[in-house]
Amino acid sequence: RMFKRQMVCRRDIERFNRSFLAIYESLIPPEEEKEKQKQLLTMLEKLVNKEWPEARLFLYGSCANSFGVSKSDVDVCLAIEDGDTRKSEILLRLADILQSDNLQNVQALIRARVPIVKLMDPASGISCDICINNVLAVVNTKLLRDYAQIDVRLRQLAYIVKHWAKSRAVNETYHGTLSSYAYVLMCIHFLQQRRPAILPCLQRMEATYSVTVDGVQCAYFDQVEKLQGWGSRNRETIAELVWGFFYYWAYCHDYANTVASVRMGRTISKREKDWTRRVGNDRHLICIEDPFEVSHDLGRVVDKFSIRVLREEFERAADIMQHDSNPCGTLFQPYVP
Ligand code: ATP
Ligand code: MG
């Protein structure tokens, strides 16, 4: 009976495939936007190099990891040999330089958890955050981009999930819900778990790329062009995967005992990581291991209130996918407090 129910569900869900694909397509940024981002980066690099000839700029985050929707902010990392200069001094100097070059709303936020300079480029309307020497973020951006090249269903799923999370107001780390980065890792984890699997575990394959950043070794198989079609034995479509994703996080994930680990390509036990109890502000109520900074739980922002909000949203989404006659309409209905 279970099998029959699943078959019925499958056939029904296929009807929504087109609508999900249309939403995905509508979220992809147009080429000219990418072009404008590149121009902005080149312009910033020129300004920066006048002051620090050796410094380099790298894009990271959604404008470079292939999970960026149209009109996203641009995240930039300034890589610089800082010697003895404090980060805050560099940021203040950088803010001065940018200010005198007609960029708008230039602000140095030196007390933030990740200190940055914010700015807006009036020519393109693009907003941009610049941080210093956050090279790990540049490397995890590459990991995400590499995963995205293996199977287009990752990009489709992650766009839908991010769009859902923004609509439902559960993409706000300052309110105890999850970052976009965490959601993409949850998608990768989920696709590694499908049977047959849709994504491999790149960090458990022979390393063709290896760097050490801030004492953390980052190594994995990055020749992803050789892996295209790797998951094609699994023929699930985007509608089924959206349903499966929410169903997994609503009803199947063992929140009490396990950690989602993209690094291992499976769940691992909380006990193994000593994430079983609250330590300081880290409550470990939903555990998502950072693929490189393995002591870092991306779920640590989640508290006992927001975990309920999150899980209720997963359940709502799973139930909509199961029963609603127009899931694409209902799923993304803005959350109204
Ligand atoms: P959005 O489209 O919402 O801007 P984004 O991909 O830029 O999405 P963010 O969550 O803003 O996602 O994160 C930007 C980048 O910063 C990520 O791609 C990741 O490289 C890095 N990052 C963000 N949060 C963390 C974190 N908690 N630990 C390590 N790296 C992080
Ligand atoms: Mg961003």
From TrEMBL:
It is found in: Cytoplasm. It comes from the Eukaryota. Residues 238-296 form the PAP-associated domain. Residues 17-149 form the Poly(A) RNA polymerase mitochondrial-like central palm domain. Belongs to the DNA polymerase type-B-like family. This is RNA uridylyltransferase. The lineage of its organism: Eukaryota, Viridiplantae, Streptophyta, Embryophyta, Tracheophyta.
